[in-house]
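Hi L.,

You mentioned the student needs an example of a multi-chain input paired with its predicted structure. This one should do, with 858 residues in total across all chains.
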Amino acid sequence: MTNPPAATAARENVAALLARLGAAARAAAQPLSLASTDDKNRALELAADRIDAQTDTILRANARDLAEARSRDLTAAMLDRLSLDADRVGAIARGVREVAALPDPVGAVLAEWERPNGLRIQRVRVPLGVIGVIYESRPNVTADAAALCLKAGNPVILRGGSESTHSSQAIYGCLRDGVEAADLPHGAVQIVPTRDRAAVGAMLTMPEYIDVIVPRGGRSLIERVQRESRVPVFAHLEGICHVYAHAAADPAMARDIVVNAKMRRTGVCGAAETLLIDRAAVRSHLPGIVAALADRGCELRGDDAARATDSRIVAANDEDWRTEYLDAILAIRVVDGIGDAIDHINTYGSHHTDSIVTADERAAARFLAEVDSAIVLHNASTQFADGGEFGMGAEIGISTGRLHARGPVGVEQLTTYKYVVRGTGQVRP
Amino acid sequence: MTNPPAATAARENVAALLARLGAAARAAAQPLSLASTDDKNRALELAADRIDAQTDTILRANARDLAEARSRDLTAAMLDRLSLDADRVGAIARGVREVAALPDPVGAVLAEWERPNGLRIQRVRVPLGVIGVIYESRPNVTADAAALCLKAGNPVILRGGSESTHSSQAIYGCLRDGVEAADLPHGAVQIVPTRDRAAVGAMLTMPEYIDVIVPRGGRSLIERVQRESRVPVFAHLEGICHVYAHAAADPAMARDIVVNAKMRRTGVCGAAETLLIDRAAVRSHLPGIVAALADRGCELRGDDAARATDSRIVAANDEDWRTEYLDAILAIRVVDGIGDAIDHINTYGSHHTDSIVTADERAAARFLAEVDSAIVLHNASTQFADGGEFGMGAEIGISTGRLHARGPVGVEQLTTYKYVVRGTGQVRP
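Structure written out for the whole complex:
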């Protein structure tokens, strides 16, 4: 298919624009990797102050985004993600200050040892490189992602969703002011100043300028990024999380964990989507769980064995085991013991976060070892899948990839390492 | 371009073959990740015993490869890499035993902490997944790579060069015997049983079966893999390594390190390719270095300032600063101080291994911080760039990528981690 000349010209302009941003980011990488903790923190604190001071400006920009969004028939959920108020802007500024308060990961000595020939070897944390963040409607990602990348010494190129352009630009202006006031390089934090979707394609295919892509958004964005990217991607496609109620589970604990894992917030990636329950626990445990969920308005879809216990459970099909509802819907499957449960999770899950509830330590140990997910829990809710809950501070996302960063991606996961070797003239025999 | 029908049919057959190998490897991943250290070591020791016992068979297979290679006009260097003798076969068996003797990385607790709510969080090492190793003529890679992958709990699919087919198959047979005798899954170690080059393309594009590709070979192989792969690649494209003789270097130490870094073995990736020398050190240090290298038959290519000191130095051009000679040739550039040296390395180098020779600790600290390479050394030869020399045991290669594995890739670098969280019924507020 041949593109019309106008589209081709526009694409070339976007490619040239992204190459300029990329070159500036690459040029910023070394000075930013050597920037002091104080300078980075000063930039973040000044940016947070600017966000507070500019609240009205940010809200006016957000009102423009919302007006345009309404004219484009966005869903209520999308409008909610997009909309800011003074409290939300205050939370964005606080988030940036929290990142400033985190320990600086750069320069940490991860391991050190001495060789018999006297060489002293250190593995030292260094920044990862230039990070491209591609996100959708949430304007707060502009500040969250930029703050984490900056703290870890990485230049960042932000590409927000077209529906949040004005809000993101206003927040970005505050970050840029902080970077300038702290005398950090201009290329440290940049935003793509065009809504042209060709910008995303350009970011995915410039390994000379961008080292890692972090996509934040819905399934179609993540799938596109994973399909087209020529650079590594830190992403999770889905959080199809399970709670497994083992026969030896305390019934009240199982109920409370399932209710929390499903209903605390249904739209987060750590929300449970499927309950697996041992056949031996169906009579003793399931009625309490079903009653508690039904009381809270949760739709229940189960297999025949589950449905036999309660008429409120409608029939589930194979597709339900593979679905991330992100809604008040829970799939329920009766399993024949722990092996069956583990097989189900490794087959239908998304390697994100899965929990077993049991008083049997041996069963717990087997589950924790054999479930191949970034986070496995015993007797705790899947909704703890969160960098803040892990004590890692803010996170840029939760990775379900196996390489480099797995689980919550915080400042440490936005670094790599180098080997520093000190000798006294050693040559190799 | 349309492929002829026969080629298309062959490609489909190769794709189906690789999909079968991939499915067997994927099926082996969980059992192998849970295999005991004893079982993995038993498989490796039995394989090493078989390699010793089958030396004659392996040498006959190698003789077939060599006969075919001679009829295809391979270079002397390629024939040398391909050829085995009883000593080399013995070294292959010893290498497998050395991997068996390494600590098992799987299950190690990398970090653990407790949260205020009582959740106990551990970061635990787990295998990386299915690894595809694509290599060229060295048949020993068959055993080295398979042993490292197996020890780290990863199924491996080996694809050796067509010129070493018979040798690699013979060595693979010994590994398979070890795997079977230790009752490990059949898919733990597999070799691609076809010379069809379409097999490489298939391996690079099956992320459902292969998690990481490790290419071992020349520039054209690595470039092809990096260009076409849809899965992460652990590779170094080139080792353009530098020694920087700082003005405060001890002259004898600088000479000995340069000579070793260049001449100990010229064909390894850690061999130095460029000497950078401070203008202030040219008169005092360069004549001794040049004399020592010229005595050993090293060709010298320098800039005008270097050439003014010795007529044996021929003119270098810009291309020399970017060339991995892998031969007895050294490029020499005179620099104006440490900033100039660091700029040269970060511009022309390959982010592999670089060394400063100096008695000035502040200069050393700056060099170690600002040179953006996987390995940076002070007062030691670049030829120490080696997993064995680092005390990491055997290595599958040295990575110049920034993500996941950087520097020598040993058994630990062939793992990832998961978070194991233990609670007592915690739900998230």
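You could point out the following to them. The radius of gyration of chain A is 24 Å. Residues 5-34 of chain A form the longest helix (30 residues).

Best wishes,
N.
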